[in-house]
Amino acid sequence: MATVTLTDVRKSFGKTQVIHGVDIDIADGEFIVIVGPSGCGKSTLLRMVAGLETVTAGEVRIGGERVNDREPMDRDIAMVFQNYALYPHMSVFDNMAYGLKIAKTPRAEIEARVQTAARLLQLEPYLGRKPRELSGGQRQRVAMGRAIVRKPAVFLFDEPLSNLDAKLRVQMRLEIKQLQRDLGVTALYVTHDQVEAMTLADRMVVMNAGRADQIGAPLDVYADPRTEFVAGFIGSPPTNFLDPAAVGGQGARLGIRPEHMRIGPAGSGRITARVLDAEPLGAETLIHTRLPSGDLLTIRQDGAAPIPGEGDEIGLAWEAADEMRFGPDGRRV
Amino acid sequence: MEKRVLFKGIWLPLLLILPQIVITAVFFFYPAGQAIWQSLFIPDPFGLSSRFVGLGNFDYLLSDPYYRASFVTTAIFSTLVTLVSMGVALYLAVLADRLIKGSGTYRTLLIWPYAVAPAVAGVLWLFMFNTRVGVVTWYLGLLGYDWNHVLNEGEAMGLVVVASAWGRISYNFLFFLAGLQAIPKSVIEAAAIDGARFWTRFRTIVFPLLSPTTFFLLVVNIVYAFFETFGVIHTITSGGPQQATTILVYKVYSDGFVGQDLGSSAAQSVILLVVVSILTIIQFKYIERRVHY
Q1: pLDDT single digits (tens) A72-111
Q2: Considering A185, A215, A232, which residue would you say is the last residue of a domain?
Q3: Most-buried pick from A7, A170, A238, A261 (CB within 10 A)?
């Protein structure tokens, strides 16, 4: 259990700077998700906290102590890797016990802790097996078990679910959340999947090209994105962007979420669009349209609402309060 | 997961393996058969006739103290060559694996000795350690050490071991390096986070995961030490002094082609063949079980 503080953390590989000064303050027991597209530097940031990458500038503190120059083993952390990184030549038991054995934990305690973790993760029948004899979900659990048994101050997760199939991913997501709640351990979780970020995080950090664009509770970030990037990245289908010239008002770009747009007959509403395609998903329908300016807009409407035909002209309306206007620098006006 | 290619007929697969079969037949089965046949005869000194002696050649060999001494020499020699060449190669591979900058240069330089033929390698080392004009001998002399592998049996053995292992280090290095690089980096990182420092990681993670490579190299190196070191020994010591470096394969040559005892030489080849087969079978049967694939 510990706080984690990043202060103006920067990272360069040679002359290329990939992290441009990130500040994050993580409270004890908090679940923080770092989310962003690939190449935004989220994994690098996590690896710097783990001690697997050096910190070029700035400060990383765990439990109030500066750990910039400490080896990974001296930081009291545990990490779950994307490819699980299990020791292929060891049984599940030995995989989980490895860290404890190195720490010279008494045999009986190792036994007890591994058993407890195995029970928690439903791995008891597999303790004698090798990783290659397990399914993807089971390997994922072993990796979790290896992190749990050491009772670290901080859990680090590097895209732990991206190698699992969609169904298993949802199930493991819930388990991870539950586990973190039960153990009360501070967690730092990296993912490119915004659904994972929304569902897991107490607060999420949206990374864009080496910068933390926004840090906040998932729903706050969703409702009130601070940059055009965040508005476009968080939410599925993504926010619609159009040129404000067509509707008036300030700003360089206007963003409106698909669920905030309403369809009316041609000529009504604030703008006219042509229907390209409709995707009925059951509970809701996604309607893809094109503006005369060429901007593509998606509207989300209730599954029971009438669906306009392909090629129809329709009018689009929305509340002024739902408008998100961004300046030329991408920041919210 | 097993991937098998299925052929419809028998003729295409036969055709495809034919070149290998022909080569094996001409260069292995035929001479091996001839050796077994010849081992049952003693030819006269002029090679005009030969007399059937059954297992007489083997009988004579096994009671010959020189031959038995050669067995011991071979055991010492091949153990040392294998240990030295694999040990040094592993050490260098671990160092090269940690390098980020300039690893290509180191790798190229380390691979070069493999291109040197054993006999040439022998001559190189012979020049350096030549008792009169060798540069190493001269420096050793300055240090007060009188190097003379022509007279000293231990020094002769040391020199042929080093010369034989030298070219082999490159080969082993390549395989070890490839083996090391095949270990997922995240596994090493996981171990580091689990608290294992470099040496512990090497002992508990890296070395066990390298075991398929190590096992393969063990088999290949022992076979190398048994046979291919002939050139090195021939150029440096010619089996001397006092047969101190006469390994089995060298004795086959010296008894057969120098001593003109073709029957005994053939019998020795047969014994050598059997010994190496047994060694390889043992390795595959017992050591392979402990290998983690």
Answers
A1: 888 889 999 988 899 999 999 999 999 999 989 899 999 9
A2: A232
A3: A261
B292 vs A: CB within 8 A: yes
DSSP one-letter code for A224: S
What percent of chain A has pLDDT above 90?
51
pTM, full prediction? 0.79
Between B221 and B258, where is the model more confident?
Answer: B221
B positions 157-176 inside 8 Å of A (CB): none
Q: Is B205 on the interface with A (CB under 8 A)?
A: yes
> Looking at the 3D structure of chain A, how many domains does it have?
2
A108 shares its domain with A46: yes
Structural domain boundaries enclosing A300: 237-326
Tell me, yes or no, whether A267 and A226 share the same domain: no
Angle formed at CA B94 by CA B89 and CA B100, multiple of 5 degrees: 125
Tell me: pLDDT of B2 over 70: no
Facing residue for B186 by CB, picked from A78, A85, A99? A85
Co-location of A213 and A318 in the same domain:
no
Q: Is A333 a member of any domain? A: no
Highest mean pLDDT among A161-170, A277-286, B51-60: A277-286
* A52, A86, A102 member nearest B196 (Cβ): A102
> Do residues A122 and A141 make contact, with C-beta atoms less than 8 angstroms apart?
yes
Q: What pLDDT score was predicted for residue B292?
A: 58
Interval B145-165 mean pLDDT: 87
Which structural domains are found in chain B, ordered by start?
Answer: 56-290 (1.10.3720.10)
Q: Which residues contact A244 (CB under 8 A, 6 or more apart)?
A: A250, A251, A252, A253, A254, A325
